[in-house]
Write a structure and sequence with these properties.
Layout (H helix, E strand, L loop, with lengths): L5 E5 L4 E7 L3 H18 L3 E9 L5 H15 L4 E5 L8 H8 L3 E5 L2 H9 L3
Parallel strand pairs: 2-3, 3-4, 4-5
Antiparallel strand pairs: 1-2
């Protein structure tokens, strides 16, 4: 990983990850694997991903495969919120993940996403 990063902060109620740059599909998969590991270690099942530092949108097939994998890995056992860059208005990942059984949301407003993440519905 050259200009990408995965930073994790453990909050009282959720795990927060930050990713930036232009990650490869494998790096997205690595992030998902890391999230699964951290859920197992901490018992926290609410995940917030700050992807606002991306420099390019992931290609559609990467978003599709990540949506499938999110559904497979988490299903209804975790809530995942992803903050997209302000220039990105595509919620394709969210649609695929939700269709695969995940509780997922993406958007451009951090406060709204955190409120959703910490909510019960």
């Amino acid at each position: 990983m050259s200009n990408e990063r995965f930073d994790m902060v453990e909050h009282e109620e959720y795990l927060e990850y930050a990713i930036s740059g232009d990650p490869s599909e494998q790096e997205w998969m690595d992030l998902l694997d890391l999230q699964v590991l951290h859920i197992q270690q901490t018992g926290k099942t609410k995940i917030y991903v700050d992807a606002s530092g991306l420099t390019a949108p992931p290609v559609s097939m990467v978003r599709y495969r990540m949506g499938i994998r999110t559904g497979e890995q988490f299903g209804v056992h975790a809530r995942v919120a992803v903050l997209r860059p302000t220039w990105e208005h595509d919620n394709f990942w969210e649609t695929v993940a939700t269709n695969r059984g995940a509780i997922a949301k993406s958007g451009n407003d951090r406060d709204e996403l955190i409120q959703w993440l910490l909510g019960d519905n």
